[in-house]
Amino acid sequence: MKVEWNDELLTGLGMIDDQHKKLVARIASFTEAVNQQDFKAIEETVNYLIGYSIQHFGAEELIMIRNGYDEFKSHREEHSWFINKVYDLQKSLLQKELSQEQLEEMRDVLVNWTLQHIKIRDKRISEKISS
Questions:
Q1: Which residues span the membrane (predicted)?
Q2: Cα–Cα dist 36/19, whole Å
Q3: In b/e form, how buried is each residue of 6-31, taking b as 16+ CB within 10 angstroms?
Q4: What is the pTM of this model?
Q5: What sign does the CA torsion over 107, 108, 111, 114 have?
Q6: Per-residue model confidence as pLDDT tens for the chain (131 residues)
């Protein structure tokens, strides 16, 4: 599974697109680390994702609030779901409770969620506040 930034992920919100590029790059790093069974890189990437996703989602949510975005609550729930998934992953990593199969499953969940969330939900922010 190859993960990389492409123009389908552009929202038209410069700051958000810049942050998405970094987020996609880290998800790609996580994917590569899982594929190579590099547990040190997995842990480092998950630690980064925890902090960065909270920072990024906060920026997105501020834009939504300032613009009276009507889907704010459901969008924020999706962000919380992602943060909880990454937290659960971090907790399992610390307790050494993950098999390679579980890591691969988590990799697929994070990749699919991130790309779909950006393509559908985040693009909708730009469409709604620009109109």
A1: none
A2: 26
A3: eeebbbebeebbebbeebbebbbbbb
A4: 0.91
A5: negative
A6: 788 999 999 999 999 999 999 999 999 999 999 999 999 999 999 999 999 999 999 999 999 999 999 999 999 999 999 999 999 999 999 998 889 999 999 999 999 999 999 999 999 999 998 86
What the block records as the tokens of 16 is: 């958000």
- Decide if 91 contacts 43 (C-beta within 8 A): no
Q: How does pLDDT run across 108-130, given as a tens digit for each residue?
A: 999 999 999 999 999 999 999 88
Here the tokens at position 34 are: 């899982």
Domains and CATH numbers, the chain: 7-130 (1.20.120.50)
Query: Using CA atoms, how far apart are residues 82 and 54, in angstroms rounded to an integer?
Result: 10
Residue 110 to residue 30: CA distance in whole angstroms:
9
